[in-house]
Fold these 4 entries.
Entry 1:
Amino acid sequence: MSTSSRPRVLSSLGRRMMRTAAVAALGFGVALGVSTVGAGAASAAPVVCTSPATANDIQVSEFASCGAQAFEQSVARSAAMDSGTAVSVAQNFGSSNSFATGFGTALSASRGNGQSLALAIGGGIAHSWADDGYATFAVAGWGSGATAEQGGVNCVGPLSFAWNLRTGQSCIG
């Protein structure tokens, strides 16, 4: 007879979340690696937008652009470089973050204490929308698209990853 009766360390939900996190890290690493190989020829100084420091912060530097707008004690941050475009909007205690590079487009929105993150690396299109205290993540690399929103997730192309913590859904391209 065993002297220790240890309960199962991880539930099935915990194991599923760990697998999803591992896949997310792998997908992000692949997308980052591909983007450093040579996603585009244009080069622009990085731009960073933050709100509430400015009510509606819009920055443009040569080819890169970003925008951030926050309402009602929320925080919106976006950054772009190398012809990327990033936009973040947050309201009602939400937190929204986006980053784009190499002709990528990242769109992030949140409200109701939601947290969203969109990363478009090397020409991808990423869209993330979070609501009601949940979090969503979307990462897209060259020629790929990822969407994480309240209705679920969608991945198109080999360098895409999306995860919705409200529904528990995730996908990888």
Entry 2:
Amino acid sequence: MVQSRRAATEQLAEVRAERDELAVAERVLERVSEQLADERTSVAPAPGQVGGRAVMLIPHRTPDLEETTLPPDYQRILGAVRQAAGPVMTRQVGEMLGVDVAVRAKLEPLRGRLVRLVDRGWLCKLPDGKFTTCL
């Protein structure tokens, strides 16, 4: 009986130690989660200022955000990428939009817009440099 009591006391001490470790782990998890949430909000690009008001011309894509919130040029670019039979290069998008693709200076602004749409989650860029719609 003394041995079973001693074993029960030891088990109780182990359980209490584990409970204390779990409590510490929960507090650490809370702190890390809060830090990650703070970092995520600080990483988001700051909107620009127009007329003293904060605006972001190309907003980050969210499930509740419609494509119509984008400027018309960007809507046309998205439409061209969607109409393509598969992933497309900047030159192909330019041809679909009527850009003079023989002039590199005309393609670079388009490439910049495509990359901006990728950065904001509206398009995806493949490792080979082609652009496609995101699922």
Entry 3:
Amino acid sequence: MVNADGNWSITGTGHNSHLLSRTFHWTCDLSWDAATASHATGNKSAPGKVIRTISSEAYDPYVQADFADIADHGTADCDIVIG
């Protein structure tokens, strides 16, 4: 989620289908015009056969300054990173 006041947040879920514990985090890349911004959650461990939710939020002055452009024609690409 990206807000006009420059605050952003990421919330994601990871399911570990293995027996051993694994770590994961989410990363999101925003792109608009020639600008980009990348944000990520911290790492979280998911024990075997367990689902975990992780979230992170912060302020980004570039997101606030360019929010109209981001809302009009920006794109977001979010991925889970496991390992």
Entry 4:
Amino acid sequence: MMKKARIVILIFVVLINICCGNKSFDLSAVSLGEDAKKYDFENKDLFLKDTAKPDIIQYYADENKGISYGNIPLDNTMGTRITVYKGKVGAIDTNAAKNIPWNL
């Protein structure tokens, strides 16, 4: 009986991780000039944070795993960089995939 309960709990935990762990972050929802805290870049588990300069924070995502831009496929060999200046989103730098089907 206890073994069945443990298996059910394990399956439940795996399903929660599958459902909640693979969410994509859509860059098209990010607006320049908006408060960066609104997007919670630090807690997305997608970005590396660089605070080398005062007032400037850069968030990097290598290979664009888990990142999209609307329905436009992104290049997975080039990363994405989001620059935050004094708490506001200042720039987004990413690259579309080379072979985009234009009938999206």
